[in-house]
Amino acid sequence: MSKIITLGEIMLRLSTEGNARFVQANHFCIVPGGGEANVAVSLSNYGHEACFVSKLPKHEIGQIAVNALRSYGVDTQYIVRGGDRVGLYYAETGASMRPSKVIYDRAHSAIAEATPNEFDFDAIMKGAQWFHWSGITPALSDNAAQMVKRACEAARRNGVTVSVDLNFRKKLWTSEKAISVMRPLMQYVDVCIGNEEDAQLCLGFKPDADVEGGRTDAEGYHRIFELMAREFGFKYVVSTLRESYSATHNGWKALIYNGKEFYESRRYDINPIIDRVGGGDSFAAGLIHGLLTKPTQGEALEFAVAASALKHTVYGDFNLMSADEVESLVQGNASGRVQR
């Protein structure tokens, strides 16, 4: 299997029990997670050498996050220890027509205040086949944006494939700031992942699709994929296509373009959703695994979509499915019958 590097922030999620609202909570459950950390856990579960790069405090709260990654086989040797705090976010799980809610408490976290010189990215990229980051990381601070740039440059020097999940977060930065930072970084990217909102708010491209209205015809994405691939030289452009009927019922499929051909995946009807957080990260990890191990882009995409569909049935940020379990769903085993 491959050595894969991910760079970003791991936080501690404080979740209410079940579908309780914040104002009802007497206590919160601690759930470690964060975009690129979630990707690393999935890839480790698939048998890859997954390495997570970040900065966390030396104290016991920082150790909670490190221990969580280690428990799933993620290599934490490149995590710099220092700084004062671990980023937090509070999560309230919605139901039916009531949406889930997230409240961030991540300002001045260790990784947001880290400097690029704290990381030897050439040493980190040595022997790696893949480097993955998301738009969340450069949104944390100007230093973090420079850190991503340095990592991408090192990946390029070392012949490492680079993927990005655009992941626009309006609570972290504006679209104008995102476009000014993200577009120059695209010169290093081989595989671009993002939904229709991400493509518009991070790169300035808008597909002909209305997800809020339930219209996610893949044809509306074809032209914009072609333009993105032509402008930035992407080897693959990929988008998830989510149909949101309620907080607990979604349609889920994806589209991939390799510069020559489009492939649209099977559609999954996910109902009920147990936990939507980390769904996009599980898709990114599944796609990376698929592109590294499958002979065609179609097979890679089917693995990614199935992996993400299964993640929606797992509580917490991490996707805890094995490659065999994902392959079983790809082959059509979706009955949910007890395995004995």
UniProtKB/TrEMBL annotation:
Keywords: Kinase, Transferase
SUPFAM superfamilies referenced in this protein's UniProt entry, alphabetically: Ribokinase-like
An example Gene Ontology molecular-function term: kinase activity
Residue span(s) of domain Carbohydrate kinase PfkB: 1-317
Family annotation (Gene3D superfamilies): 3.40.1190.20
Keyword Iron-sulfur: no
Entry annotated with the keyword Kinase: yes
InterPro entries named among the record's database cross-references: Carb_kinase_PfkB-like, PfkB_dom, Ribokinase-like
Residues of the signal peptide: none
Family, similarity comment: Belongs to the carbohydrate kinase PfkB family.
Protein name per Swiss-Prot or TrEMBL: Kinase, PfkB family
Organism: Hoylesella loescheii DSM 19665 = JCM 12249 = ATCC 15930
Lineage: Bacteria, Pseudomonadati, Bacteroidota, Bacteroidia, Bacteroidales
